[in-house]
Amino acid sequence: MRIISVDERTIPLGSKTKNAAISFQAMTASAVVIEIETSRGRFKGLGFSSYGRYGHGGLLRERFIPRLTNITDKISGETSVQLMAQVWDVLMTDEKEGGHGERSGAVGVLETALWDALAKSEDLPLWALLERDAGHSDDSQLPPGKTAIYASGGHYRSSSSDAAELADEAKRGLEAGYGWFKLKVGGASQFIDLSRIESAVKAAGDSSLIAVDANCAYGGENGTAQLIELDQIGLRWIEEPVNPLDYPGLADCCQSLKTPIATGENIFSQADSKNLLHYGELRPGLDNLQMDFVLAYGLTEYLRIIKDAEAFGWSRRDFLPHAGHQVALHAAAGLGLGGHETAVVPGGPFSSVSDDTTVENGIANLGDTPGTGIENKPTLFKLFANLL
Amino acid sequence: MRIISVDERTIPLGSKTKNAAISFQAMTASAVVIEIETSRGRFKGLGFSSYGRYGHGGLLRERFIPRLTNITDKISGETSVQLMAQVWDVLMTDEKEGGHGERSGAVGVLETALWDALAKSEDLPLWALLERDAGHSDDSQLPPGKTAIYASGGHYRSSSSDAAELADEAKRGLEAGYGWFKLKVGGASQFIDLSRIESAVKAAGDSSLIAVDANCAYGGENGTAQLIELDQIGLRWIEEPVNPLDYPGLADCCQSLKTPIATGENIFSQADSKNLLHYGELRPGLDNLQMDFVLAYGLTEYLRIIKDAEAFGWSRRDFLPHAGHQVALHAAAGLGLGGHETAVVPGGPFSSVSDDTTVENGIANLGDTPGTGIENKPTLFKLFANLL
Q1: I need a labelling partner for B100 at 20 to 30 A (CA). Which of A268, B271, B287, B290 fits?
Q2: Catalytic-labelled residue, pool A44, A182, A184, A377
Q3: What is the DSSP code (8-state) at residue B20?
Q4: Whole-angstrom distance, CA of residue A295 vs CA of residue A244
Q5: B381, β-bridge pairs
Q6: What is the pLDDT of residues B13-49, one digit of tens each?
Q7: Nearest 5°: CA angle at B15, between B27 and B211?
Q8: What per-residue confidence (pLDDT) applies to B153?
């Protein structure tokens, strides 16, 4: 494989929603296109940032794109995994250990664009390339090419009909075939949050079809009392109850709550993931690991994170990547992960799935289009208009 | 205080040196100038990135400078510490928890430039402002305005006279009045490293005057054996023996080595620092904490980190900030920290100290020039030529 060219654009993602911690009005993402050449011809790989951490334009231009375009030799590997591990080392040249933020997203968006290009060069959907070269889960309940899928939304709105809109959103998500629905908590009073949850549970018909995302709102003593109330509801999971790096706080949650915990979307490296698993007292088979590989140095690092977790007694089914990007859908279906998140905000780049994917009874059935299928997701693909 | 303007430039720091992990040829830093207005007039604050993590031009322009320049109201606070805590909250608006890298340096360089401006507006050197508003150590052996100081160098060079050059460097450092000398290890065979250390110890006349910096080279079993050899020498400290986030590995070092450990330069937030102190089994009063506040969200976050550490039984004397920037010299002398690092590579922005500071018998005696004194350090000040 040779790198022919790399282009990037920063895309505004301005949204009026907010979670317990931040507003998303100024949010951006990076779209990148990498052209590669292999023995089969030239292929363009598309990559798109994950959500919530801003685009990486500056870092891409300052450090990471030049490292890729400076590769003049051919890069080879027996498998795509081996080849990408070499690319990864080039991307991380002269980068010190620690400090895993921002650059992990710059590397992630480039790395996943290269996976898109590589899959296209093999004429395979990415899920099939990953299944072939990285292996599908031993204990998956679904065959390669399929994955569980859920709908995520329920952000706070300023409108007074928030709870009604939320119920409607949950209902639409489940009716569209998504397996369960996730909403935001921790950004309002416990009274309002409980009434929002109640609306959603009522709309869904079962509390196990509702997960809640606290965006770290429940640190401290008051938080513990609120969590204990939430624990009575029988929710699918409580996501990010405390600061992502508050391992003692997380351990407390795991000791005191029977509801599954989900966390990991703000853990951006193998080193941080090891600490989370080592110190967080998360429960394999019950809790959910949401590391977002587009924010966390890409699939190469994600495979290392999964391997570490397996050594700690976890299964790939315990992994459900954050954010709902198209490449995560392929990783879930190819590696046999626990499922895929999609945003229900209509029309956004993280909503829904590519056109060749069907969603029914909580299962996404991926098509055979080569690559990650960004071209088949019009709301996402249109953001690449000036890059192709 | 009002923000009048913020300007930044990326400065190449290309150097032929390398450590155990990376080369510094493509290294950059950010220089920033912030003009503020207070009741006493207008003042320009200068900030300069720390070393080893690249400049932050992209992040500064994309997110952090706009947040500062968008402040149209006056920012007030009873003390500089309270005022800066408000600025900090503005800088971190809509930034999610976790992922502490890169942005922590962008915030750090802006935040420290503002401290320079604030100190100038009070007609005080920064050390005196910090002493007044954040307090000097209770148990410091030196009065405010003075700090222990050491020389850091001993990078690997390609020349065959490496060990002789190293001995010369150590000797020059100690003769110039620096209290001890630090060199790099872990980037060559143990045989070569031991002979380099031997040269330096011989030049210094005492092994306790020599510290070594491993830049994370001693992870794994082979590393442990090498560390046990180093532990026999009676070195001042062994710095960053393992990956900065490898808390179990660090705990092993602290249990098995009698030599003091130094670490923390790649720990960039209060949350990460808490984990280091909670899980690393570092020994208060023996080991050294090197958090580099210019890389770690600035002095506001550093004061939080120090407070946490004090609650864990540490003293401010156990803190010795990484890198040798002028603002760290003032923090050490104002807060009563354990000392200040300076680079011995002549002429660089992290070498030596401002002209109004004297260095004698291992002690730096800071002058009274208002601010951080960057204007009095010609090798650093010239890098601001196009910004002023």
Answers
A1: B287
A2: A184
A3: S
A4: 14
A5: none
A6: 987 777 777 788 889 999 999 999 999 999 999 999 9
A7: 95
A8: 92
CA angle A126, A313, A144 (to 5 degrees): 25
**Active-site annotation holder among B100, B155, B322, B325:** B322
Nearest CA-CA partner of B351 in B375, B378, B319, B385: B378
> Is A377 among the catalytic positions?
no
As its CATH architecture, domain B2-123 has 2-Layer Sandwich (3.30)
Banded pLDDT at B360 (limits 50, 70, 90): very high
Res A264 pLDDT > 90: yes
**How far apart, in Å, are the Cα atoms of A73 and each of A3, A63, A76, A86, A113?**
9, 19, 9, 12, 19
Residues of B in contact with A274 (CB under 8 A): 245-246
pLDDT in tens, B300-322: 999 999 999 999 999 999 999 99
Residue that the structure tokens 């306790």 belong to: B208
* Alpha-helical segments (H) within chain A: 57-59, 65-69, 80-91, 103-121, 126-134, 162-175, 190-204, 220-230, 247-256, 270-279, 298-311, 326-335, 378-381
Each residue of A129-186: pLDDT tens digit?
999 999 999 888 899 999 999 999 998 887 777 888 899 999 999 999 999 999 999 9
* Domains in chain B: boundaries: 2-123, 130-387
Say if CB B318 and CB B339 are below 8 A apart: no
pLDDT of res. A100: 98
B184 lies within 8 A of chain A by CB: no
Domain A2-123 identical in fold to domain A130-387: no
Of all residues in chain A, the one with the smallest CA distance to B269 is A99
Distance CA B362, CA B179 (A): 4
Q: Do B94 and A26 touch (CB under 8 A)?
A: yes
Contact A54 B63 (CB under 8 A): yes
Annotation says B56 is catalytic:
no
Start-to-end CA span in chain B (Å)? 20
Q: Does B38 touch chain A (CB under 8 A)?
A: no
d(CA A276, CA A262): 12
What are the start-end ranges of the E strands in chain B? 2-12, 28-38, 41-48, 146-152, 181-184, 210-213, 238-239, 261-263, 288-289, 340-343, 358-360, 363-365
Q: Other C-beta atoms within 10 Å of A34: how many?
A: 26
For residues B363 and B373, give the distance between their C-alpha atoms in angstroms, rounded to a whole number.
17
- When the pLDDT of each residue in chain A is averaged and rounded to a whole number, the result is 95
Q: Is A220 on the interface with B (CB under 8 A)?
A: no
What confidence score (pLDDT) does residue A311 get? 97
Ranking B161-170, B206-215, B292-301 by mean pLDDT, the lowest is B161-170
Which residues on A lie below 8 Å from B98 (Cβ)? 101, 243-245, 266-268
Query: In A, residues 278-297, which contact B (CB 8 Å cutoff)?
Result: 278-279, 295
Q: Is the pLDDT of residue B137 over 80?
A: yes
Q: Which chain A residue is nearest to residue B25, measuring alpha carbons?
A: A94
For A26-73, write each residue's pLDDT tens digit.
899 999 999 999 999 999 999 999 999 999 999 999 999 999 999 989
| Inter-CA distances, B352 with A56, A108, B339, B380, Å | 35, 39, 14, 10
ipTM for this model: 0.95
Q: Is the pLDDT of residue A20 over 90?
A: no
Fold category of B130-387 in CATH: TIM Barrel (3.20.20)
- Cβ(A228)–Cβ(A253) below 8 Å: no
Nearest CA in chain B to A265: B98
Cα A31 to Cα A1: distance, rounded to the nearest angstrom = 22
Give the pLDDT score at A163: 86
